[in-house]
Design a protein that fits this description.
438 residues; alpha/beta; Transferase, Pyrimidine Nucleoside Phosphorylase, Chain A, domain 3; Pyrimidine Nucleoside Phosphorylase, Chain A, domain 2; Aldehyde Oxidoreductase, domain 3; 3 domains; 4-stranded antiparallel β-sheet; 18 helices; binds uracil
Length: 438
């Protein structure tokens, strides 16, 4: 087979077979296909798209360029399930959802990423916990999933290596924004964890990765269809990102929020609604629950009995963190030097929030990276956000900064990001749509 023939076929909108996509993916991974050929292929797909069958074949081909975990179901005694999100602001769902699902009988081998742009990354949040090892070897990862029901870790070097090289080329050749390529990129990494079922959280709104609601819908449908065609039954939820999801954005602040949520100390209702909707979908897909009512009562019980908090605690300890994180989190999680609320300099009702700008404010405070090699300050961030429809007589947020100067810069950004009006305005639903594979 010749790479240029595969590129030509895609250029001329002819269908590609699975063996051609396997050959191309293997060539990306082993270096036998040049960067120019990868770029040309990416552009041909960008313009001519892919059928669902082609995207599923590309997903599996890229997945198979690296390690693929397999789980012995007899040993695990339950379905292997997971969630993936396109990324948001104050989106601490993973830290809560993993333990909740495990407490309901699922096994969750969650391979997460670092922060990207204005969105936070689960791995950076977990790195705020002293001792927690986000890159354990396979044996410890598997042992933690087996014993605790969940392990949240980072991507190892050999997970879908074709995607790493393909993504780097797409990034510099204006071909990131292709639905089949985004689908295959996300799913090749996710499916390498050996899942039985997946739920996808596709964000829509001004803090979302996709620019329009229509694009988010198309991506959600593509992911549900392609993952299901690739053998992992998947549903996608379209959820709102026109304001921060939870009460905290940053790293230690989001771990604190997750612990308080799991123990029942404080539960942000929006975060709860999205987390429960995603969990309920997975519990039904995997037949751990017969219907939504049963799923919701299982989730309530996992929280009120303390089972989910206990799972979180055991996972943290198993992966090297403290044994008493739940009862002593304030001792372990770093606090910023300068924390103070910021207020509005006008009156009215919150009518719009530039969610992306709030995410970038966390990056500016030092809680995210501007360049890949940047170090993160785990203590900084934003908490206690005002919500759409609320009055300006309360703080817009509490800013946790390294210094008073950093605080003042963040305060100006937050004031500029929040718009007020005198009329109550439309507030989007939190879960817009549940998209099943077709
Ligand atoms: N995230 C990914 O992992 N891949 C893409 O192509 C886009 C977002």
């Amino acid at each position: 087979m010749l790479p240029q023939e595969i590129i030509r076929k895609k250029r001329d909108a002819e269908p590609l077979h699975a063996d051609e996509l396997q050959f191309f993916s293997q060539g990306i991974s082993d270096g036998s296909i040049s960067e120019g050929q990868i770029a040309a292929f990416g552009m041909a797909v960008f313009f001519n798209g892919m059928t669902r069958a082609e995207a599923a074949a590309l997903t599996l081909a890229m997945r198979d360029t690296g390690d693929v975990l397999s789980w012995d179901n007899k040993e695990l005694n339950g379905p292997v399930i997971d969630k993936h999100s396109t990324g948001g602001v104050a989106d601490g769902v993973s830290l809560i959802l993993g333990p909740l699902l495990a407490a309901c009988g699922g096994y969750v081998p969650m391979i997460s990423g670092r922060g990207l742009g204005h969105t936070g990354g689960t791995l950076d949040k977990l790195d705020a916990i002293p001792g927690y090892n986000t890159i354990p070897n396979n044996a410890l990862f598997k042992e933690t999933v087996r014993n605790c029901g969940v392990a949240i870790i980072g991507q190892t070097g050999n997970l879908a290596p074709a995607d790493q090289r393909f993504y780097a080329t797409r990034d510099i050749t204006a071909t990131v924004e292709s639905i089949p390529l985004i689908t295959a990129s996300i799913l090749s990494k996710k499916l390498a964890a050996g899942l039985d079922y997946l739920v996808m959280d596709v964000k829509t709104g001004n803090g979302a990765f996709m620019p329009t609601h229509k694009d988010s819908q198309i991506l959600a449908q593509s992911i549900a269809d392609v993952a299901t065609a690739a053998g992992v039954q998947t549903t996608a939820l379209l959820t709102d990102m026109n304001q921060p999801l939870g009460s905290s954005a940053g790293n230690a602040v989001e771990v604190r929020e997750a612990i308080r949520f799991l123990t029942g100390e404080r539960q942000n209702p929006r975060l709860r609604e999205v987390t429960f909707a995603l969990c309920a979908e997975l519990l039904q897909l995997s037949k751990l629950a017969d219907d939504g009512t049963e799923a919701h009562s299982m989730l309530e019980k996992a929280l009120s009995s303390g089972a989910a908090a206990e799972v979180f605690s055991r996972m943290i300890y198993s992966l090297g963190g403290p044994h008493d994180i739940i009862s002593n989190y304030e001792r372990y999680l770093p606090n910023a030097a300068f924390s103070k609320p910021v207020f509005a300099d006008e009156s009215g009702i919150v009518s719009a929030i530039d969610t992306r700008a709030l995410g970038m404010t966390v990056v500016e405070l030092g809680g995210g990276r501007k360049r890949a090699e940047d170090h993160i300050d785990y203590s900084v961030g934003l908490t206690d956000f005002i919500a759409l429809g609320e009055k300006a007589d309360q703080p817009l947020a509490v800013i946790h900064a390294r210094s008073e100067d950093d605080w003042a810069a963040a305060a100006a950004h937050i004031q500029a990001a929040i718009t007020f009006s005198n009329e109550p305005s439309h507030i989007s639903p939190i879960v817009h749509e549940i998209i099943h594979a077709q």
